[in-house]
Design brief:
The complex is a heterodimer of chains A (317) and B (350). Chain A has 317 residues and is an alpha/beta fold. Chain A has twelve helices and eight strands. Chain A is 47% helix and 12% strand. In chain B, strand 6 (155-157), helix 7 and strand 7 form a beta-alpha-beta unit. The chains are: A alpha/beta (317), B alpha/beta (350). Chain A binds chain B through residues 58, 60, 89, 91-95, 99, 101-103, 108-111, 113, 116-128, 130-131, 149-150, 153-154, 156-157, 160, 313-317, and chain B through 36, 62, 67-68, 70, 72-86, 100, 103-104, 107-108, 112-122, 152-153, 155, 175-177.
C-alpha cells in the first residue's frame, strides 16, 4: 500500500470536511448567502474518484460540489472566495456555492438543476471521442437524479454512442427530504443503468480506497474500450439537504449509525492498522487542512466584491 | 409564398431556402473540422425537411449524427461538446420539440459563460423550423422566438430570404455564443438570390426590404413576406410603407428601428406568435421610449390571435397575421378608413 497516497487522501478528505465546517460557520454569520449544500459524510466518494483519474480527465458535477472542486483543484481560496461572492472566487463571484468552475483544470461545474448536467457530461465525452482524445469524463450526481428524464437521456445516448464517461451516483439515501425507497421502484439505482445497457457496480462510498479502485478500473475501461460505466456509491450525508434543512425526517439513531462509519475515520483506522502514521501525525495532517481553510477564509474575507461595472460582462462572448 | 423582395445580382444564383441553409452548413463544415450536425433524421433520412440532404454522404456518420428522439439529451450533448471546443449545429425537427429541451437552452447554454465568469465560450447553433405551417394544430404551429429572445445569453436569428438564411447561418455558426436559428416549414421551398462566394451577414443588423416614407413595418422571418404584400397593396392607395426586416431579434438592431421610425413617424410591428410579452411589445417599448417625440401615432402591432392554434383551416387563417390585417392596421395608423374585411377587435393583437 502506497503510504504517501493514503496520507494524501486523508489530508484531502480533511480539507473537504474542514472547508465545509468553515463554510457552515460563515453562513451562520451571514457571510455566505444563498443555498449551501454540504457534503459532509460523503468525502470518500469525491476524493476517491477524482484521485483515481488523470488531471486531463474532465469532472462534471452538481450543486453539492465543493469537495469535487477541491479534490480536482486543491484551491480552497478560490472556492471559499466564491462562496463569499468575491471577485477572487473561482467563478468571479457570479456563480456561488452551486456554480464552481475551473476551465483550465477541466472542472466543468457546478450545475444546479437536478439531472441537467448528465447529458452535458455525455457531450464532453462525445467531444473526446470526436477528436480521438483519450480523456474520460466523470459525472457526479445524487440518487434523486435517477428519476429525472435528463438522466435517462444522458445515459441512453452515452450507451448508444459508446461515450467514455463514468457516471457516479452518490446514493446518500435522500432526495432532499424524501428517502429513496419512497421514490425509486428499485432498491439500487445501478439496476436502471444496466438496462441501457451499461456495466454498473455498487460500491461502499464511505471507503475511499474501494471508491478509488472502482473508478480507476471503470475509467481505464472507458478509456480503452470507449464505453460508459456506472458506479453507485452508497453513502450518507451527515447534514441536511442544505444548511437551511434541520433534517427532521431522519431519526437520531439512523444518523448516528451512519456517522459511526465516517469515511475519514475509516481511512484513519486503516492508516493506523497499516502502521503508516501515528495519531499525532494524522492530527498534524488535519491541522494542516484546518490551516489551509483558515487561510482560505481570510483570503475570502479580505477579497473585494466584484466591481459593479462588471455586472454586464460575460453574458455574451 | 412570394419571391423575396430583392432582385438577383449578377453574381448571384437562385437557390431555395433549404439549399441556402445546406450550402451554409456544408461550406462551414468544410472550413472547420470542429463543426458537426446532430439531430433527428438529419443523416440517413436526409433531413425531415431535406435541409441536410446529401450531407451524410459528404461528411460521414462522424459529423452528421442521427439521434434518438431525445431533445434534452442531444441538446445537452451539444452543450457539453461546445464547452470543450467543438462547434455543434443541433437541429430540432421543429422548434416545438425544443420545449422538452428548454432547460438545456435556458439553464445551461444561456448561463454557463456568465456563471463561470467568462471561462467558457459556447459556440453552438440550435436550428430548425418554427411557426405555423399548414393545419398542424396547436402543438406544431408555434412561433417561439419571443420565448428564447427573452433569455440573456441566447442570440435569436429569424431569416426571411434564402440569401439572408445563408449569410446569417454562416455568421451563427462562427459566433462564439449560443444562437437560436428559426426557419420555417413553409419557406424551405422559397427561392431567391444567394450571392456566390463568401457570404456572411453579421448578426444584429436589420435590412430594409422595401423603402417607404409613410410608416415603418418592423418585422422578421415569414412575416416579412406578409408585410411586403401589405406594402404592395398600400402602395396602390398611395401609402408608402417601409418594410424593415430585423433578421436578428437578439441582438436587436435598435438603431435601424429608430432611424426608420424617426423618418416615417409611424411604427407597426408585424409578428407571428402571440402578442402577450412578445418581441413586438419589446420593439414598441423601445420606440415609445426613444422616439416618442417623433411619433405621429401610437405604435401598434399585428400578431397571432391570443389563442392556441386551431386545426380548421378557416380558423387557422384567422389566427395568423395576414397581409390584409397588416394593411388594415397600417391604414388605422395613418387615420385612413379601414376596409370592411377587418377581423374582429380581438384579432388586432391587443
Amino acid at each position: 500500500m502506497d503510504a504517501a497516497l493514503l496520507l494524501d487522501l486523508y489530508r484531502q478528505m480533511c480539507l473537504c470536511r474542514r472547508f465545509e465546517e468553515a463554510a457552515a460557520k460563515a453562513y451562520s454569520q451571514g457571510k455566505i448567502a444563498g443555498f449551501l449544500h454540504l457534503y459532509i459524510g460523503q468525502e470518500a466518494v469525491a476524493v476517491g474518484a477524482i484521485s483515481a483519474v488523470e488531471e486531463s480527465d474532465y469532472i462534471v458535477s452538481t450543486y453539492r460540489e465543493h469537495a469535487h472542486y477541491l479534490a480536482r483543484t486543491r484551491d480552497a481560496r478560490g472556492a471559499m472566495a466564491e462562496l463569499y461572492g468575491k471577485a477572487t472566487g473561482c467563478s468571479g463571484g457570479r456563480g456561488g456555492s452551486m456554480h464552481l468552475y475551473d476551465a483550465q483544470k477541466r472542472f466543468l461545474g457546478g450545475w444546479a438543476i437536478v439531472g441537467g448536467h448528465v447529458p452535458i457530461a455525455a457531450g464532453v465525452a462525445f467531444a473526446a471521442r470526436y477528436r480521438d482524445e483519450p480523456d474520460v469524463t466523470l459525472c457526479f450526481f445524487g440518487d434523486g437524479t435517477a428519476n429525472q428524464g435528463a438522466f435517462h437521456e444522458g445515459l441512453a445516448l452515452a450507451a448508444n454512442w459508446k461515450l467514455p464517461v463514468v457516471f457516479i451516483c452518490e446514493n446518500n439515501q435522500y432526495a432532499m427530504g424524501t428517502p429513496l425507497y419512497r421514490t425509486l421502484s428499485v432498491e439500487d439505482v445501478a439496476v436502471r443503468a444496466r438496462g441501457y445497457p451499461m456495466e454498473a457496480e455498487i460500491v461502499n462510498g464511505d471507503d475511499v480506497l474501494e471508491m478509488r479502485e472502482a473508478v480507476r478500473q471503470a475509467a481505464a475501461r472507458a478509456r480503452k474500450d470507449h464505453l460508459p460505466f456506472f458506479i453507485e456509491a452508497k453513502t450518507y450525508r451527515f447534514r441536511g439537504h442544505s444548511v437551511a434543512d434541520p433534517a427532521k425526517y431522519r431519526t437520531k439513531e439512523e444518523v448516528q449509525k451512519w456517522m459511526e462509519r465516517d469515511p475519514i475515520q475509516i481511512l484513519a483506522q486503516r492508516i493506523r492498522t497499516l502502521g503508516i502514521a501515528t495519531d499525532e501525525q494524522l492530527t498534524a495532517l488535519d491541522d494542516a487542512a484546518k490551516a489551509d481553510v483558515q487561510d482560505a477564509v481570510r483570503f475570502a474575507e479580505d477579497s473585494p466584491f466584484p466591481a459593479p461595472e462588471t455586472v454586464g460582462e460575460y453574458v455574451y462572448a | 409564398m412570394p419571391e423575396a423582395g430583392v432582385q438577383p445580382e449578377a453574381e448571384s444564383r437562385v437557390l431555395s431556402f433549404r439549399e441556402a441553409l445546406r450550402e451554409a452548413m456544408v461550406e462551414e463544415m468544410e472550413r472547420d473540422e470542429s463543426i458537426f450536425l446532430m439531430g433527428e433524421e438529419v443523416g440517413h433520412y436526409n433531413g425531415a425537411y431535406k435541409v441536410s440532404e446529401g450531407m451524410l454522404e459528404r461528411f460521414g456518420e462522424r459529423r452528421v449524427i442521427d439521434t434518438p428522439i431525445a431533445e434534452t439529451g442531444f441538446a445537452g450533448v451539444g452543450i457539453g461538446a461546445a464547452m470543450v471546443g467543438l462547434r455543434p449545429i443541433i437541429e430540432f425537427m421543429t422548434w416545438n420539440f425544443s420545449l422538452v429541451a428548454y432547460d438545456q437552452l435556458v439553464n445551461n447554454a444561456a448561463k454557463l459563460r456568465y456563471m463561470a465568469n467568462g471561462q467558457f465560450t459556447l459556440p453552438i447553433v440550435f436550428r430548425g423550423p418554427g411557426g405555423a405551417a399548414h393545419a398542424l394544430a396547436a402543438q406544431h404551429s408555434q412561433a417561439l422566438e419571443s420565448l428564447y429572445a427573452h433569455i440573456p445569453g441566447l442570440k435569436c436569428v429569424v431569416p426571411s430570404t434564402p440569401g439572408d438564411a445563408k449569410g446569417l447561418l454562416k455568421a451563427a455558426i462562427r459566433d462564439d455564443d449560443p444562437v437560436c436559428f428559426f426557419e420555417s416549414e413553409t419557406m424551405y421551398a422559397l427561392k431567391g438570390p444567394v450571392p456566390a462566394g463568401e457570404h456572411v451577414i453579421p448578426l444584429g443588423v436589420g435590412d430594409v426590404k422595401r423603402p417607404g416614407v409613410d410608416l415603418t413595418l418592423v418585422t422578421w422571418g415569414k412575416m416579412v413576406h406578409a408585410s411586403l404584400k401589405a406594402a404592395e397593396a398600400l402602395a396602390g392607395e398611395g401609402i408608402e410603407a417601409e418594410v424593415l426586416d430585423l433578421r436578428t431579434i437578439r441582438p436587436l438592431d435598435e438603431r435601424a428601428i429608430l432611424d426608420s421610425v424617426r423618418r416615417t413617424h409611424r411604427c407597426l410591428v408585424v409578428q407571428e406568435g402571440w402578442p402577450f410579452a412578445g418581441v413586438a411589445a419589446e420593439v414598441i417599448a423601445l420606440v415609445a421610449r426613444e422616439a416618442f417625440d417623433d411619433l405621429d401615432a401610437p405604435p401598434d402591432r399585428v400578431t397571432n390571435l391570443d389563442v392556441p392554434m386551431p386545426y380548421a383551416k378557416n380558423l387557422e387563417s384567422l389566427v395568423l397575421p395576414s397581409p390584409e390585417r397588416v394593411a388594415a392596421a397600417a391604414r388605422r395608423l395613418l387615420g385612413r378608413p379601414e376596409e370592411a374585411t377587418v377581423p374582429p377587435r380581438a384579432a388586432r393583437g391587443r
